[in-house]
Design goal:
The chain has seven helices and eight strands, in the order E-E-H-E-H-E-H-E-H-H-H-E-E-E-H. The protein is an alpha/beta fold and 263 residues long. The chain has one domain: Rossmann fold, CATH 3.40.50.620. Strands 5-4-3-6-8-7 form a six-stranded mixed β-sheet. It has a two-stranded antiparallel sheet with strand order 1-2. A hairpin with a 2-residue loop joins strand 1 and strand 2. It is globular. The two termini are 36 Å apart. The N terminus is likely disordered. It binds iron/sulfur cluster.
């Protein structure tokens, strides 16, 4: 395991070396809890990685890098429909932390079939499920067959589908009988304000789209800015019901858990 980064205290001046030599600002219990969970997860699983979407879950990368430094394993789903700003931001994060980010692309044959048969915007007519299945779920399932655990930036306050989200859980969607997969959600109990307090306090990079009114950032055609009194998820798949706003990455958040890995 790599030595922790020497820059672990960020811009904080009052620190308490209370977790394995990693400095944590006083009074930051959520941060401490997340660091402890990550440290335990990294200790328990060799085949584990952070899922980074190019949005505010850069906090996960920052927390993870405080423990593993540039050895932090990170992957991202490049759906082919991300904003150019998100691609550039991924590069910024790669440079800032010195981490490798593995980008996962959709299966080209499935993509060719979808676009040939239904065009580039079928999700507006048919719902986002089919396109997300090809551009996100299949690549993620492929990656999770190599891993025993993954780490997400999900928060309970993001959506009605995420209420009661635990900080660790068996991944019912991507586990199979002979290959259980664990999912860790270190930010489950963080609010959006906690995330932004952390980003500002530690002066870490963030996707510039956030300064243009985007709060929850996904693919360009399925993401739009929200107003000051709108919930962040109102900017995602706005033409669909709120209870349908999971893309299958976290299928067990909806009422009937879905086994995806054997599809
Ligand atoms: S978010 Fe939209 S463009 Fe991206 S994979 Fe899902 S349906 Fe397709």
């Amino acid at each position: 395991m790599a030595e922790p980064s020497p820059n672990i205290a960020g811009s904080d001046t009052r620190v308490s070396p209370s977790i394995g030599g990693i400095a944590v600002a006083e009074g930051r219990s959520a941060e401490l809890e997340a660091l402890r969970l990550l440290e335990d997860a990294f200790g328990a699983f060799d085949r584990i990685a952070v899922s980074f979407s190019g949005a505010e879950d850069v906090v996960l990368v920052d927390l993870g890098a405080r423990i593993l430094g540039s050895d932090l394993p990170v992957f991202s789903l490049d759906t082919g429909r991300l904003h150019p700003q998100t691609h550039r931001f991924m590069e910024t994060v790669r440079d800032h932390y010195g981490v490798a980010i593995e980008t996962l692309a959709p299966d080209p044959d499935e993509l060719v079939d979808l676009v040939r048969d239904k065009g580039l915007f079928s999700f507006y007519r048919d719902g986002h499920g089919e396109c997300c299945a090809i551009r996100k779920i299949e690549p993620l399932g492929r990656k999770l067959r190599e891993l025993d655990a993954w780490i997400t930036g999900q928060r309970a306050d993001q959506s009605v589908t995420r209420e009661g989200l635990p900080t660790s859980q068996d991944d019912l969607a991507f586990s199979s009988a002979d290959h259980p997969v664990k999912k860790f959600n270190p930010l489950a109990n963080w609010s959006g304000r906690d995330v932004w307090d952390y980003i500002r306090r530690r002066e870490i990079p963030y996707n510039p789209l956030h300064d243009q009114g985007y709060r929850s950032i996904g693919c360009e055609p399925c993401t739009r800015p929200v107003g000051p009194h709108q919930h962040e998820r109102e900017g995602r798949w706005w033409w669909e019901n709120v209870a349908d706003k999971e893309c299958g990455l976290h299928a067990q958040n909806v009422a009937e858990p879905l086994r995806i890995i054997d599809r």
